[in-house]
Design goal:
147 residues, alpha+beta
Length: 147
């Protein structure tokens, strides 16, 4: 179904012009255009890391060097708060993270080991939160259903 546009240039002659011109690409040419577009949009990967990751690591090293940290190595001694907590460390009270892109990072010199009392307190807090939320769950198909 093609739409046509009609214009009258003379009272006796009506010209019909196609609004959508016919497709001139062959299937092979279309595949070549698609392949070229996907090749251009694919991220560059160097040593198994995307280009954006490498740029972030360079920015991290520069920012920590500017802040006075000498041995800045991303993924070795610079991590986010959550990653330090997973490794059993916590940032020292009063230390400030450095903001690089969307990351808030701490250096190894800014963290301390989590004590066993802190671990027990965190576990107790987690258990209490779990108990509070599990009390609200009502299994489907039981007689105590509010329906």
């Amino acid at each position: 179904m093609t739409r046509t546009k009609t214009t009258t240039t003379d009272t006796t002659k009506v010209e019909t012009q196609a609004v959508n011109p016919p497709v001139t690409l062959t299937p092979a040419a279309l595949q070549a255009v698609i392949a070229e577009a996907t090749r251009q949009s694919a991220p560059t990967i160097i040593n198994g890391k995307p280009e954006r990751s490498i740029k972030n690591e360079i920015a991290v090293v520069k920012a920590f060097a500017k802040a006075g940290f000498k041995d800045a190595k991303p993924h070795v001694n610079i991590f986010t708060f959550r990653k330090w907590m997973e490794r059993g460390y916590r940032p020292v009270e009063g230390s400030k993270s450095l903001k690089i892109s969307n990351l808030r990072l701490f250096h190894v010199s800014q963290v301390r080991k989590i004590t066993s009392e802190e671990k027990a307190a965190m576990q107790a807090q987690s258990d209490a939160a779990l108990a509070r939320n599990m009390g609200k769950v009502i299994p489907i198909g039981t007689e105590t259903s509010p329906q």
